[in-house]
Automatic annotation (TrEMBL):
Domain NAD(P)-binding: 8-197
InterPro entries associated with the record: NAD(P)-bd_dom, NAD(P)-bd_dom_sf, Polyketide_Oxido-like
Pfam families in alphabetical order: NAD_binding_10
Protein name per UniProt: NAD(P)-binding domain-containing protein
Record-level Gene Ontology MF annotations: biliverdin reductase [NAD(P)H] activity; riboflavin reductase (NADPH) activity
Gene3D superfamilies, per the entry: NAD(P)-binding Rossmann-like Domain (3.40.50.720)
């Protein structure tokens, strides 16, 4: 079992990840701006703080095995990732935490090239600023000096988890047809699995429906 640090514990993916991590037997420390909004679960320690407080984040996650960052920011905020990811990297490096598992979104950067024509048009118009921000921030990861994994979920929704889904390295994916949609809880299950998988370091992982991808 591991000690997992989590940011984004009050969001859709983050709250589901909190529950999945505890259900799997892991100890969790949640770093949250609004501690009262974090679900009260035995085995979870909540630390109050904001993501622009690198010292506070570093202190909160020290002693953890991995930091899972399930924060995406508002779609209208075109610099959120570029402001936040450097702080996450610095906190992981300064705290000695082993890895960062960063939740992005399918459509960011070169992943858009694998999308359907309709989805790609959406990513490059209405969501362009949102995805450009993520892509720019994620360019920092390879040279960061930390172990990292970037996760690219497709469209997400509330609901019960499906029994089968896919988590595949981006380089093995040729195409993501249509607009596949997956429950938040399935992404959460994948994040907990990746948090415990040292073999995922340095990998970029697509999370989609079982049939929502085609291999190279």
């Amino acid at each position: 079992m591991m000690k997992i640090a989590l940011v984004g514990a009050t969001g859709n993916v983050g709250s589901a990840t909190l529950r999945e991590a505890v259900a799997a037997g892991h100890e969790v420390v949640a770093f949250a701006r609004r501690p009262d909004a974090v679900e009260k679960i035995d085995g979870v320690r909540v630390v109050e703080g904001a993501l622009d407080d690198v010292a506070g984040l570093t202190s909160a996650i020290t002693g953890s095995d991995v930091l899972v960052a399930a924060v995406t920011g508002p779609v209208r905020d075109k610099t959120f990732a570029q402001r936040t990811v450097p702080n996450l990297i610095a906190a992981v490096r300064d705290s000695g935490v082993g890895r960062l598992v960063l939740v992005s979104a399918f459509g960011a950067g070169d992943t858009a090239l694998k999308a359907s024509p309709f989805a790609r048009a959406l990513y490059r118009t209405a969501l362009k600023g949102f995805f450009d921000d993520k892509a720019a921030a994620e360019e920092l990861l390879p040279a960061s000096g930390i172990n990292w994994t970037a996760v690219y979920p497709v469209n997400l929704k509330a609901g019960q988890p499906v029994s089968e889904w896919a988590a595949e390295p981006i380089e093995k994916v040729k195409k993501v047809p249509g607009l596949p949609t997956l429950p938040y809880s399935n992404v959460a299950k994948t994040l907990v699995q990746l948090a415990t998988d040292q073999g995922a370091s340095g990998r970029r992982i697509l999370v989609t429906t079982k049939s929502g991808w085609k291999a190279v």
